[in-house]
Amino acid sequence: MTSTDVRKDAEDSGPSGYAAARLRLLTEGAQSGPPRRAALAELTDDWLTGLFAAGNEALKGVSLVAVGGYGRGELSPRSDLDLLLLHDGGDSGAVAALADRIWYPVWDLGLALDHSVRTPAEARKTAGEDLKVQLGLLDARHIAGDLGLTASLRTAVLADWRNQAPKRLPELQELCAERAERQGELQYLLEPDLKEARGGLRDATALRAVAASWLADAPREGLADARRRLLDVRDALHLTTGRATDRLALQEQDQVAAELGLLDADTLLRQVYEAARVVSYASDVTWREVGRVLRSRAVRPRLRAMLGGGAKPTAERSPLAEGVVEQDGEVVLARAARPERDPVLPLRAAAAAAQAGLPLSLHAVRRMATAVRPLPTPWPAEAREQLVTLLGSGQPTVDVWEALEAEGLITRLLPDWERVRCRPQRNAVHIWTVDRHLIETAVRASEFARRVSRPDLLLVSALLHDIGKGWPGDHSVAGEIIAKDVAARIGFDRADVAVLATLVRHHLLLIDTATRRDLEDPATVRSVAEAVGTTGTLELLHALTEADALATGPAAWSSWRAGLVTDLVKRVAAVLSGDAPEEPEAGAATAEQERLAIEAVATGGPVLALRAQTEPPSEDEPSGDPEPLGVELLIAVPDQPGVLPAVAGVLAMHRLTVRTAELRALDLPDGVEGSVLLLNWRVAAEYGSLPQAARLRADLVRALDGSLDIAGRLAEREAAYPRRRGVVAPAARVTVAPAASRHATVIEVRAHDAPGLLHRIGRALDEAKVRVRSMHVSTLGSNAVDAFYVTGAEGTPLPGDEATAVARKLEEMLRA
């Protein structure tokens, strides 16, 4: 039966005919989705028009208006009828009688009715006092009566809304935030409220209201489809339950899925989550734009006054990374950025945004999504480092990751992500979908970066530990296979790939063993030791276990569980422990290093050389150019106090980021007198090009002779930039490695990488009157993991108390 036939039956049979036609439309018709909602609204319009017209030929200046969802022509099976009887203030008795002739038949049929009788002035006054009324009137639609009366109200209400937008939109945003706080996020709830939860139908309606204000607009792509999907699910929920409910209860999900022709309840929830994610992301972007516009309007009059009404002020742009700047509180692409030539740009922009605690601009993400070419396999070193930096940025990682995911960039970077995206977890302990749980685990793991010697492996294992949940069978077994492939693809070497695979395969080992096995049984401890293999992997697994549990939900971790796991780790570490590593043996000096050392002795000053480091072309592009790893900086300088802080400070002044660094005393050839320190560092420009070697040398000479105030220059540069929220990194941790070397005391520093960090460490060690015999520095994402082999003035290891005091003083300086 067509909708035309249904309407004809309703017109022929009066109210009872409407009820029968409505029932047939909802149960027998082949239509569903938007066509059925529109047909039901049209059928209801015809019926109400008949009620309005009956015995009302002489009454003028009255109209019947649909508002809210009914005004939008979207009637779900159990939706309320939101009606306004609008009149010009004439015969009040006749208007009241007309209202009775309309309202009572609606009630008699058992339909929910939200009604009001007002003049245009009263409607506008009520809207000005009640935001919800105003939102409903924005969708006002004429049904019957005086069309001019309805049209004039619509025009006035829209004008009021646009004039009052600077005041009403913050009120609407607060209303949305309060509702989200009460109802939670639709995209993560196992029993979500399709209308009230964040990302639901109320938020979609709020976005329409923002667009109607002409102040800002929501991202349109995918939004209409997401809203339609949520409405379709609500229709099916109404039909299967026979009730006007918006809560998708667990016991009804299979029936709703069947009504929609879906495979099962998990498929249903995943579709709901995907739609909610689109609405939530659109809301975030839109409200951010509203805030930007309102701030701009508030500042503009003052700026105009300051500028004397002259030129329009331009937005300030502060550089964050190569091709990435901050503007108006967002991270955008620099004018010189070329996404089509820079495949690392999305990860670099994301890492910079997360580190600065700023959102990624929608325009920037979309431009990168359409222009950036795929990364080669394996990834270049910079891409891997930027991924680690992004994952290690704490809570800001979540919003930045979601921005990339909204435009499909995550699944392009990590194709295996598609199987866990928006995947529900039907477990009362879990509070997130699989994909969000993985990101939350990385956020938690970033808090433990100072506990492990390889924070990069910890963060990547956090991202991948449940990646196997998108496949049949034991997710740990499936995840191990996927983790090996992903880790190799993003550029880890074989040893690191093996560690990551072990962490994913055994990410539940510690918690399961600690809570279900007898820890006094040596066989229990030995089995864990055999599975883990090394103390380094055990250290990582301990941190991953805690991060995983904390990211699962409040019921997954407790002081009791933490105590059991810690006890197990201590027992396993005792089994795995062996002799501590000796100081690494330095390789023989190359011809170039010897040449630089001899020249340094001859000139009595520093000598340096810069050369690009590359790795072979990828397997995917064997004929391409080698991938740049950075620039190798070799420096030879006569041994003297202050070399480390001088070199590190000069590099920081020139905006060079230190990726790896080694310092050692070089044995000179026979016949050459003097002592030379050799520094072999890999550096990269924060943005822009590298400085010339001659300029670096000149500044280094001045730094060593004391004529260049490095600390002052760095402080001036930091003060010149506006303070950003940024990532709140875990506090620095400085320890003395026990018995790590017979020839020196080993001080280990784990800290958040920042410009000038190595300069500050070098100054602190100089002030402590210790000499750096050698050092081994690595930057893993945003984490610096450094080991300094130091001695006293006599060249011997520091006494225990003195070593502890130096480490404590260095830690206090880094935490200040």
TrEMBL record:
Role, per record: Modifies, by uridylylation and deuridylylation, the PII regulatory proteins (GlnB and homologs), in response to the nitrogen status of the cell that GlnD senses through the glutamine level. Under low glutamine levels, catalyzes the conversion of the PII proteins and UTP to PII-UMP and PPi, while under higher glutamine levels, GlnD hydrolyzes PII-UMP to PII and UMP (deuridylylation). Thus, controls uridylylation state and activity of the PII proteins, and plays an important role in the regulation of nitrogen metabolism.
UniProt key word Nucleotide-binding: no
Renumbered residue ranges of the record's region Uridylyltransferase: 1-319
Family per similarity comment: Belongs to the GlnD family.
Listed name of the protein: Bifunctional uridylyltransferase/uridylyl-removing enzyme
Matching PROSITE patterns: ACT (PS51671), HD (PS51831)
PANTHER family, A to Z: BIFUNCTIONAL URIDYLYLTRANSFERASE/URIDYLYL-REMOVING ENZYME (PTHR47320), BIFUNCTIONAL URIDYLYLTRANSFERASE_URIDYLYL-REMOVING ENZYME (PTHR47320:SF1)
Catalytic activity: [protein-PII]-L-tyrosine + UTP = [protein-PII]-uridylyl-L-tyrosine + diphosphate; [protein-PII]-uridylyl-L-tyrosine + H2O = [protein-PII]-L-tyrosine + UMP + H(+)
GN (gene name): glnD
Domain of life of the organism encoding this protein: Bacteria
Annotated control of activity: Uridylyltransferase (UTase) activity is inhibited by glutamine, while glutamine activates uridylyl-removing (UR) activity.
GO MF, any single term: [protein-PII] uridylyltransferase activity
This protein's UniProt keywords: Hydrolase, Magnesium, Multifunctional enzyme, Nucleotidyltransferase, Repeat, Transferase
EC number: 2.7.7.59, 3.1.4.-
Stored Gene3D superfamilies: cca-adding enzyme, domain 2
Species of origin: Streptomyces hokutonensis
Free-text domain note: Has four distinct domains: an N-terminal nucleotidyltransferase (NT) domain responsible for UTase activity, a central HD domain that encodes UR activity, and two C-terminal ACT domains that seem to have a role in glutamine sensing.
Occurrences of domain HD (ranges): 434-557
